[in-house]
Amino acid sequence: MTAVRILSGAMIGTSFMTLFSYIASGITNRHFKEPLLLNQLLRYFRYCKTLKESSLAGWIVHYSIGTLFLISSHFIWRSTSAGPGLPSGSLHGLMYGLTGIAGWHLIFKLHPNPPSIELNRYYLHLLAAHIIYGGGAAAGYRLPDSS
Predict the structure, then answer these.
(1) Distance CA 11, CA 136 (A)
(2) What is the pLDDT of residues 19-58, one digit of tens each?
(3) 90 with 137: CB under 8 angstroms?
């Protein structure tokens, strides 16, 4: 079933990416944790002012974006000869990384109180994290269907 493949790939890819971000944050002592950064950004909105940094909202946004990216990959894989393998998934991750950098950059520029982080290091990290996402997403998408 297509929905199961998409959700499996999205959950696995986003989880690999997030694990990488948490490990990188711990090793470098920098704030690369996307769900927590999302919560910091969401707190600006009136109905989100009480969000804690570890709130579920940032996680939901993060995994939802991962699912949207994999839906895009699904349509690319179905309409081209490039199937869901590690090379293709990593290439998609690279494209999503560039998309993510553009999105985060726009958010940081437009937000009245963005988190204080080193943007160039964060963007480099995002590129690597999304390549990992793409490889994990392709692997999850290829898991045997149980139905």
Answers:
(1) 9
(2) 999 999 999 999 999 999 999 898 887 777 777 777 899 9
(3) no
- pLDDT digits 0-9 by tens, 106-115: 999 999 989 8
Residue 146 lies in a domain: no
Q: What is the rounded CA–CA span in Å between residue 62 and residue 37? A: 10
The sign of the torsion formed by the CA atoms of 64, 68, 73, 79 equals: positive
Instruction: Identify the domain containing residue 119 by its residue range.
Output: 2-141
- Classify 107 as helix, strand or coil: helix
* Domain membership flag for residue 38: yes
119: left (phi over 0), alpha (psi -120 to 50) or beta: alpha
| Residue 147 resides in a domain | no
Residue 146: pLDDT above 60?
A: no
Residue 36 domain flag: yes
